[in-house]
Amino acid sequence: MSRVTRPLFGTRFARLFAKAWLLGGYLFLYLPIVALIVYSFNDSPLPVVWAGFTLKWYGKLAQDTEMLEALLLSMQIAFMSATAAVMLGGMAALALHRYRRFRGRSLFNSMVNAPLVMPEVIVGLSLMLMLVSVQHAFGFPRRGMGTIWLGHVLLSMSYATVVIEARLRELPPPLEEAALDLGARPWQVFWLITLPMIAQSLLSAWLLSFTLSLDDVVLSEFLSGPGATTLPMVIFSRARLGLSPSINAVAALIVAVVSIGVIGASLWIARRERKRVSS
Amino acid sequence: MKTIGSPKLRGASGARWVIGLPYLWLLVFFALPFLIVLRISFSEMDAVRVADIWSYVDGTLSLKLRLANYLFLGEDDLYIRAYLSSLRFAAMTTAGCLLIGYPFAYFMARSSPRRQPLLMMLVMLPFWTSFLLRVYAWKGLLSEGGWVYGLIRATGLDHLLQALHLIETPGMLMNTPFSLLIGMIYTYLPFMILPLYANLSKMDMRLLEAAADLGASPWVAFWRVTVPLSRAGIVAGSMLVFIPCVGEYVTPELLGGPQSLMIGRVLWDEFFGNNDWPLASAIAVVVILLVLLPMAVFNKVQEQAKGRAS
């Protein structure tokens, strides 16, 4: 590349500075994750003093029924809320992308964007108060797994919409039109053309929604009822009390599972991409 | 603005569902709850439930708006201090993210195109692992004996932090404004980097060539061409960081210690600790009013970015 297009990289010092800044940034981003994993193997109840290698925290974790039950509940909620969020978010993305004008579009658009930034305590409080009002009037729903699911769908739907809409914007519109001209019906166009082309973004949106749900404390605390304790709620209540090696072990496991999932998914996406380019 | 898809496709009968279903969902579960919060904020707590602001007695419908919750927010300086301190922490977090994130996104966008997807993925990856656990990890890193604690002590940086009033005594990093700030910057940094990178990587390089041809030094071109052109990215990133920071709860609770006053925590305590739902609602209404303006700005920038892309 020429000197002009890389303006601040003229000198060797500047190049070195850029590398150092990037390296420092990544170090900052990854340091906590590395520390969590390293100290999950630490043979000391105090997670900041190194006292030799052990696997005992993982053994303890296997017997920690509170944690395991919470994990099971969280996985169920995450699975269901990610599925619903992708469906609703996909519809919202299609609506925003395809229909440039409809009544109330700007309200719709701001309602899709708002949960991305709205402080979670506000969303949690308001949703909870509404559910209580409904409960007073009709006697249902009881707070628990279903209401947590509701909150998580609301939050992750916005992220799903952003991811899917970004992909829709990259699509070449002539393809859909060509299919229509060749006699395909609109629903056929959707199933045969649009859906396969946005499949990757649906998968990314699903994974993102899944992790958001698996990670959320605030909405769950507001919306849960007796007996419905999610994994982040357990982790949060222990973390509040202080450092606990059991959290490190959970963290290391989550990081391992997520890395395998994300790497697997991106390999799959890369392969599809290659196939698409070659065909 | 260009229309996408043929009229036939847009006129498809699915339109009503595709728009209607998510619309209805958001109206019922996102917009309606805010109206209920507003209503409850003008109410008071009965023995077990919130009193209704409407009453119908002897054929008279009366509306009773109780302003006491709002007046109370003004009287007790705890609330005003909490609001101001939340805004201050949110502003400091935004500034910190911008300071670290802008050069980061810039260097990312100007590194070799082949390496960029990898660099991008490395920014996204921590996002996939639990945010709660990563914040918790800072507890260990900043406690006595932790890695970062050791580094800061060894370099004497803690004296600088003390001079900046971010910590009180040099040996104590946890449960200070400093630990809170580190945690918040850490949490929100990717939200700053991603929109900035998206913006900077799309920049038209011919403009920089033109600036160079007209005699601008790289440094001048950076400040007078690159930075102004990336304004949309700066605004989007700043709003993505600032707005949620104002009401942040988890990070202050885990890293902030008792002195770091944040409005999210005050709301939480009124709700869960004192069970005062009307007061918690009034606090929430004021928070919403505070973030409404930045939110409108965010919305506008989002729309503009989409408009340019399509």
CATH topology of chain B: MetI-like fold
Mean of all residue-level pLDDT scores of chain A? 86
- Stretches with pLDDT under 50, minimum 5 residues of chain B: 1-6
CATH homologous superfamily heading of chain B: MetI-like
Would you report the number of β strands of chain B? 2
- Average pLDDT over all residues of chain B: 85
Q: How many angstroms separate the termini of chain B?
A: 8 Å
Q: Class by helix and strand content of chain A?
A: mainly alpha
What is the CATH architecture assignment of chain B? Orthogonal Bundle
Please describe the structure with a list of short key phrases separated by commas or semicolons.
A: mainly alpha; MetI-like fold; 11 helices; globular; B: 310 residues; mainly alpha; two-stranded antiparallel sheet; 3% strand; disordered N terminus
Notes on the structure:
- The complex is a heterodimer of chains A (about 280) and B (about 300).
- Chain A has one domain: MetI-like (MetI-like fold, Orthogonal Bundle).
- The longest helix of chain A has about 35 residues.
- Chain A is mainly α and about 280 residues long.
- Chain B has a two-stranded antiparallel ribbon with strand order 1-2.
- Chain B has 15 helices and 2 strands.
- The N terminus of chain B is likely disordered.
- Helices cover about 75% and strands about 5% of the residues of chain B.
